[in-house]
Write a structure and sequence with these properties.
The protein is α+β, with helices and mostly antiparallel strands. It has three helices and four strands; from the N terminus they run E-E-E-H-H-H-E. A hairpin with a 2-residue loop joins strand 1 (7-16) and strand 2. It is globular and about 35 Å long.
Length: 100
């Protein structure tokens, strides 16, 4: 049985201290931990390459604390409290309308 993958318009926010990093990429998949890690990893990988990923073009201000984008995305999703406490980092994905 094949399950259709849903894609949603989304606003993604990653905050480090007072700095906010916003991205308007579409979110694909179910709203679960694995999809969130994938979505954030893709955004952070592009940001690490300086690709103009964030709406405010503030990629250079993002701190990965010595981790790869995937490692950092995994940490902030799987252990939100530690990410907030140790790195002052929080995240939010706000899905909107479904893309057809």
């Amino acid at each position: 049985m094949t399950t259709a993958t849903q894609t949603y318009k989304a606003e993604t926010f990653i905050r480090q201290g007072e700095e906010e990093f916003r991205c308007g990429w579409d979110f694909t998949g179910p709203c679960d931990e694995a999809s969130a890690i994938t979505h954030l990893s893709e955004i952070l990988s592009e940001a690490a390459m300086g690709e103009g990923t964030f709406e405010d073009e503030n990629e250079d201000d993002f701190n990965f604390y010595g981790m790869t984008p995937k490692e950092f995305a995994t940490l902030i999703v799987k252990d939100e409290e530690a990410a907030k406490e140790m790195y002052g980092t929080t995240w939010e994905i706000c899905p909107g309308e479904r893309c057809d």
